[in-house]
Amino acid sequence: MTRIQELERLVRPLGSAVVAFSGGVDSSLVASVASRALADRALAVTAVSPALAAGELDGACEVARTIGIRHETVTTAELDREGYRANGRDRCYHCKTELYDRLLMLAEDRGYRVVLSGANADDVGDWRPGLRAAAEHGVRHPLLEAGVSKDEVRRLARALGIPSAEKPASPCLASRIPYGTAVRPETLRQVDRAEQALKRLGYRTLRVRHHGELGRVELAAEELPRALSAPADVIAAVLSAGYARAEIDGEPFRSGSLNVRFAGRLAARSS
Q1: What Å distances lie between residue 86 and 33, 95, 130, CA to CA?
Q2: CB 142 within 8 A of CB 33
Q3: How far apart are CA 124 and CA 141, in angstroms?
Q4: Could you tell me which of 25, 92, 50 has the C-alpha nearest to residue 193?
Q5: What is the pairing mode between strands 214-219 and 245-248?
Q6: Most C-beta atoms within 10 A of its C-beta, which of 122, 163, 230, 238?
């Protein structure tokens, strides 16, 4: 049995499902498997809010068309939740609670039996308060349940011809704001403007970390030498978004690095 068939066998008995669909590679693989296993009883749903980066919805729509799954959007209001705005270390819990509240409501109204997420086996052990929200809502994680790692996710996505197979991770814009700094719509827009300006320069894997008047740019290891050899354009792009100061981090970007540091501190406290 192939890995795709194994995932289909896991999903098929569910009968019908709503997929929490960002258009990233993880949720796209789950959406593709759900479509293959459940046909028209699978629905991909993308959440739209101020925390969604520009272009992400268009990308999700294109991936859904390629997969052949029905696709809709819902508007989420995580910024109305005090716990989200306060931006504590459990911010993702409040965000995912808002998301799953909306998706479960939609699923119940339409007669879908379950909500699926794109969490994979590599998410276990990381600081993922969103998984707690998922557990409270009965959300299923086919990739995690089957032990599929991130590298395998990309391999399977390539095999299925999913357009987002090589897409860099793009978590919500609030992830660029340090814990403890309030999340505000204007801050999210500023971060988004800075990142879009850098993408127009041809940079692909990046984050602009928001530190008040300072925008700190993190770039992938393969893109960092270009920026460091000619930093003026990068600095100008960030300043164009309204930051008073900008700098380029000399260390390569690593997805989830903030969570890794925090999870390490938790482990140290418990030892």
Answers
A1: 36, 12, 16
A2: yes
A3: 12
A4: 50
A5: parallel
A6: 238
Contact (CB, 8 A) for 99 and 205: no
How is 82-129 classified by DSSP, letter by letter?
HHHHHT-TTHHHHHHHHHHHHHHHHHHHHT--EEE----GGGTTS--H
As to burial, measured by CB atoms within 10 angstroms (0-12 exposed, 13-18 middle, 19+ buried), residue 2 is: exposed
pLDDT per residue as tens digits for the range 123-182: 886 668 899 999 999 999 999 999 999 999 999 999 999 999 999 988 999 999 999 999
Read off the pLDDT of residues 11-23 as tens digits, 9 standing for 90 and up: 999 999 999 999 9
Distance CA 251, CA 238 (A): 18
Clarify whether residues 143 and 17 are in a common domain. Answer: yes
Residue 11 falls in which region: left (phi positive, over 0), alpha (psi -120 to 50) or beta: alpha
Provide the number of structural domains found in the chain. 2
Contact 76, 57 (CB under 8 A): no
44 and 70 assigned to the same domain: yes
- Same domain, yes or no, for 127 and 45? yes
Are residues 145 and 48 part of one domain?
A: yes
- Note whether residue 266 is domain-resident: no
240 φ, ψ to 5°? -65, -20
User: DSSP per residue over 220-252, as a string?
Assistant: -TTTHHHHHHSTHHHHHHHHTTT-SEEEE-SSP
**At 184, is the pLDDT very low, low, confident or very high (cuts 50, 70, 90)?**
very high
Regarding whether 47 and 11 lie in a shared domain, the answer is: yes
Domain boundary among 139, 166, 193: 166
**CATH number, position 76:** 3.40.50.620
Domain membership of residue 197 as a residue range: 184-257
